[in-house]
Design a protein that fits this description.
The structure is a homodimer of 350-residue chains. Chain A is an alpha/beta fold and 350 residues long. Helix content of chain A is 41%, strand content 17%. The longest helix of chain A has 30 residues.
C-alpha cells in the first residue's frame, strides 16, 4: 500500500488524490500555507488524513517561526490558514489544538523556537503513528460486527487514503476479511468527486480485494436486494449525541439501510468526536465549487447556465446509526454517555 | 422547444439524447431495426418517447413488410426486435400491442399491406399526438398539487425530451409555473447517464426556466433543509398496486422525501400503467453496461478492475407515493382501484 502522507527532507509529501487512480504522484508542501492549500484543494482528504496533514503543516509553521524575527505571529498565521482550509472535519481543529497546546507548554518551560519546531514535528509523527494504530484497533473492534457471508457496502473513501493508513471503514473491511469472513465488498462511486470509484476501488484492488462499484443512486436497490449484511462508513465529525457528518450521500444511504433493516455502522477515531457540538445542527457543512458537479476532468458534463447545490457533507441522525466503532471500543445508542466515556479515554481492549 | 422525434421523408428523426447538451443532432432510423438500435443505445429515451418511437418503428416494419414477399415474418421480426430493445418501460410493449392489434383488424378486413403500412403510420402519429395531449393534461391536473412558493425537486428527465413534448414531471412543473406559482426548480444530475444534468437542465433553460442542479447524493440534504415543497418524477412502469419503476435513484429519493415529510408525486400517462404487473416484483429491471459507470465521454473515471452493479431502474413502493398524476386524473392510495378505473378510461376533466 502506497503511503498517503510522509514527512521527509523537511517537507510533507502527499499522495495526490486528485490524480488517482490514473497517476500516482506526490504533492510536496514545504510550508504551512502550502499544506493548507493541499487540504483545501483535496490533494489530501479524509478527516483523519487531514488531521495528520494539519499536524505536519503546523510543524512546518513552527519551523518557519524559528527562522523568523516574529515567531509568534508566523505560527499564529499558520494556525489560521490551516484552520480555515476546510470547515467540517473536526480532526483538523483537533490536531491544531493538540500541537498548539504542546507549543504553549514548551514556551512556558522556556524552550527555544528551534526545540519547539523539533518537538512539534515529533508530535505530528505521533499524531500520524497513533492514527494508524487507531485504524487497526477500529478494525479489530469492528470486524466482529460484520455478518459473515454477506456483502459490505461503503460510501466515499474511509480507507488507507483517508487516514495515515489501513482506514477506518475500510479498516473494518480489511480486518473482517483478514479474520476469514467471506464478504463481497461494494463501493458507492460517490459523486461528485468519485472517491469511491477513484480511491476506494483503487486501494482495495491494490490489496487484491475484489470490489463492485455502483452509482450512488443504486445503493438503495442493492440494499433492498438482500445482498448486503452491513453498511460501514467513516465520519468527518461526530456530535455529542451521535449525529454524524460524513461525505454527502451518507444520510440517504442510512435511510435506505434502515428501510432494508441492514445495520449501519460508523467507524472513526475518537479524534473525530466533537463533544462541543451537541448535535448535527452544530456542525458546519462545507459547500464546494459548482465546477465539481458541472465538469469532470476539465470537460463540461452539464448544461450551461444551471445553478448548482454542492454540499460536501450531510448529517446522518444518530437514530439511524446502529453503532459507532472507535479505537477505544464500540459506542451504542444512546450515544451521549458512550461517546463521552470513549473520548475521556476509558478504552476497552480490542 | 426542439422536437424529440418526428417522422418525415419516410424516416424517423430522433433528437440524439446521447450528445446533448453539447450537440443538437438528429439520429435517423429508416427501418424497424434501426429504430430498435436507437432505443437500445438511448439515442431516444424516456418511457413515453420510447412508446412513440416504437410505434413509428413498427410502422417502418409495416412499410418493409409491404415491400417483402413474406410480409408477416418481416412484421413479426420488427415486433420482436423492438420489443427486445429495452425491458422496463411498458409503453414500448403498449405501443407495439396497439399497432399490432390495428394490423390484425385491417388484415381481417382484407386491407392490402400498403394500406396497412399507411394506417400504422397514421396510428403512430396518433400515439405521438395523444402523448403530447396526455402530457398537457397531466400538467393541468398536477399543477394543483404543487405547493406555491417552495421548491420542486425532480429526478432524471421526465420532460419534453422523454415524451412527444411538454413532459410528464416537467409537464407538471411547466403548468405550475404557467399558472403563476413561484417555485424554484431543482434537478438531480442522475448518474450514471446524467439525464438531469444534460437533459432536464438543458430543456428547462431552453424554455427560460432557471434550474439548480445537484448531485443525486445531495437530494436528501436539500429535502431535509425545508426548501422543497414536493418531489415530482416520471415513471417507466406502474404496477397495479402503485409500485413504480422509474430511473434508478427514485426509490432513495422517495425515502428521503418521506423522512422530510415532503409529498412525492409520480406523473405518467395511463400507457405507463401495467395492470398485468401485480406489484413491483413483477417488473423486469434492466441492467446496463459497466462502461456507463466506469467511463464518461470516453474517459475512464474509475479504477480499473472493479466489477460494476448498474441497474437502470428501481422500484418505489406505493406506500411512499402520495399521488399518481395521469392524463385522466389523479390516483391516490390505495392505488389498485384508482389505477384500474383510470386505465379503463373513466376520465375526469382537467
Amino acid at each position: 500500500m502506497v503511503k498517503t502522507l510522509e514527512f521527509r527532507d523537511g517537507a510533507l509529501h502527499l499522495l495526490d488524490q486528485r490524480l488517482l487512480p490514473g497517476q500516482v504522484t506526490f504533492a510536496v508542501a514545504r510550508t504551512a500555507s502550502e499544506t493548507a492549500a493541499a487540504i483545501r484543494s483535496m490533494a489530501v482528504r479524509g478527516a483523519p488524513a487531514i488531521g495528520c496533514a494539519a499536524a505536519y503543516g503546523l510543524a512546518l509553521a513552527a519551523l518557519e517561526a524559528a527562522r523568523s524575527p516574529e515567531p509568534d505571529s508566523v505560527f499564529e498565521q499558520g494556525v489560521r490558514e490551516l484552520s480555515d482550509a476546510r470547515p467540517t472535519a473536526v480532526n483538523l481543529r483537533w490536531a491544531l489544538e493538540r500541537l498548539s497546546t504542546k507549543r504553549t507548554e514548551l514556551l512556558r518551560q522556556g524552550a527555544s523556537h528551534d526545540a519547539i519546531a523539533r518537538a512539534l514535528l515529533q508530535e505530528a509523527d505521533a499524531v500520524t503513528r497513533e492514527d494508524l494504530e487507531a485504524c487497526r484497533a477500529i478494525g479489530r473492534f469492528g470486524k466482529d460486527l460484520v455478518p459473515d457471508g454477506r456483502g459490505i457496502l461503503t460510501h466515499c473513501n474511509a480507507g488507507g487514503l483517508a487516514t495515515a493508513g489501513y482506514g477506518t471503514a475500510l479498516g473494518v473491511v480489511r480486518a473482517a476479511l483478514a479474520a476469514g469472513k467471506s464478504c463481497a465488498i461494494y463501493a458507492d462511486e460517490t459523486r461528485p468527486w468519485l472517491q469511491g470509484a477513484r480511491l476506494t476501488a483503487w486501494e482495495l484492488l491494490q490489496d487484491g480485494i475484489p470490489v463492485t462499484l455502483l452509482p450512488d443512486v443504486a445503493a438503495a436497490s442493492l440494499l433492498a436486494s438482500g445482498r448486503i449484511g452491513c453498511v460501514v462508513v467513516g465520519a468527518d465529525r461526530i456530535a455529542q449525541n451521535g449525529d454524524t457528518a460524513n461525505k454527502v450521500g451518507t444520510y440517504p444511504l442510512a435511510l435506505a439501510a434502515q428501510a432494508a433493516a441492514v445495520p449501519f455502522f460508523v467507524a472513526a477515531p475518537t479524534s473525530t468526536v466533537d463533544l462541543r457540538a451537541r448535535n448535527g445542527a452544530d456542525i458546519p457543512i462545507e459547500e464546494r465549487s459548482a465546477d465539481e458537479v458541472t465538469h469532470l476532468a476539465g470537460t463540461r458534463i452539464a448544461a450551461e447556465g444551471a445553478s448548482v447545490f454542492n454540499p460536501a457533507f450531510d448529517v446522518t441522525p444518530a437514530r439511524l446509526i446502529a453503532a459507532i466503532v472507535t479505537e477505544r471500543g464500540i459506542a451504542r445508542p444512546p450515544y451521549e454517555e458512550a461517546l463521552s466515556r470513549l473520548v475521556a479515554g476509558s478504552a476497552s481492549t480490542p
